[in-house]
Design goal:
The chain is mainly alpha-helical. The protein has helices spanning 27-30, 76-82, 85-94, 100-111, 118-125, 133-147, 157-183, 196-205, 216-228, 236-245, 251-263, 270-281, 287-295, 314-330, 334-348, 350-354, 362-371, 379-399, 424-427, and strands spanning 4-9, 14-19, 60-63, 68-71, 74-75. It binds coenzyme A (COA).
Length: 429
Amino acid sequence: MTDSLTIRDNRTGVEYDLPITDGTIRAADLGKIKAEDEAPGLAVYDPGFVNTASCRSAVTYIDGDKGILEYRGYPIEQLAESSNFLEVAYLLIHGELPSQAEHDEWVHQITYHTFVHENVKSFMQGFRYDAHPMGMLMASVGALSTFYPDARNIHDADNRNIQVIRMIAKMPTLGAWSFRHAQGKPYVYPDNDLSYTANFLSMLFKMSESKFDADPRLVKALDTLFILHADHEQNCSANAVRSVGSSQVDPYSAVSAGIGALFGPLHGGANEAVLRMLKRIGTKSEIPAFIEGVKNGNERLMGFGHRVYKNYDPRAKIIKQQALNVFEVTGTNPLLEIALELEKIALEDEYFVKRRLYPNVDFYSGLIYEAFQFPPEMFTVLFAIGRTPGWLAQWLELVQDPEQKIARPKQIYTGARTLDFTPASQRWS
Ligand SMILES: CC(C)(COP(=O)(O)OP(=O)(O)OC[C@H]1O[C@@H](n2cnc3c(N)ncnc32)[C@H](O)[C@@H]1OP(=O)(O)O)[C@@H](O)C(=O)NCCC(=O)NCCS
């Protein structure tokens, strides 16, 4: 077997041999295929880049058919079970698990960078009382670039490192303050005695008590959700971070673009849609009628199906278990019963089986967030905090990859050409 592709251009009769490497051909090789010497080379048309590899990456591996997700080679199930979010963040950023000394130093550094400049607090307070927390998060992360102008020095490894630490450390502070803002509650400063996730819960929910003591099961559940969301290879927001980062802008601006991408309903918003659906179904007895409606094409079963996973989303199983743990603390949510029954029926139903539709990460996550009493607007903020190490790992890979170029896709131009401009004074007279 030869690892090459022979293409015959029927416009010219010329044959080309293109090497196949890692299951891909190089678009630049296609560019050599021309109808005439001066003509533009052949390009591919691929809206959404659904079949175009934009980079080589060693961060996250997904096999959607088999339901496999690995960070740096480690299965998500093992990381969710036995690691913690900061260790996973280290793994994503540095490529390998830390030694004890590296771990301790990493946790210390992150913990001691959780505070933000007081001016950040004052400008966050300037947002309208009903500002969406995700909009506040996106703006404040972008604004950090003005507090750390040295972050522009992206070719310096030490500099990159400190910005990565700052961003992972400050994200919960900014996320929690965005939440408190909408509630008209005072912003709570970080508590450096607490773990990353326990401190986040303290900044979210602390009132007059001197120490906020979150139930360890809730801390573990949220920490696990952060792990499950930490990276998902070249998804829309990672691609946004890479695309903006390819201009060599500072990482705060690039990550703030990623937050913008995650804000959109097609990316971060499905768990909210699941909650709405469960509330609408209302009782278990309504499930068969609802399923019939889905099968007749009236609507979709939200939280089922995935562009990549054609098997059980490995994250969904873990989230389901965490949901049960959380409800032990908070008391059960009547929607859980509907969700469990819905899942049971759908997994046995020929319509869903044939189309390989399984629960995805969003099927249970909204229920957990609701049990924490987060309003739906906070769901994407939580996603963004978890995804930050992934965005930064993708960004670090990008800026150190000699093959990367500024992102600049081609287009197929479909508009008018060579029109003559008539000034408005003549057109309108
Ligand atoms: C995620 C999603 C957009 C992936 O879509 P996709 O891979 O492009 O799959 P398609 O839209 O091509 O659907 C393939 C078939 O399954 C059906 N299907 C897909 N998801 C479905 C769902 N959630 N409920 C019912 N039917 C569904 C489609 O109607 C289609 O059926 P057909 O072949 O008879 O026309 C889709 O599964 C979906 O809308 N899910 C619900 C929303 C959701 O949970 N999103 C979160 C993703 S993390």
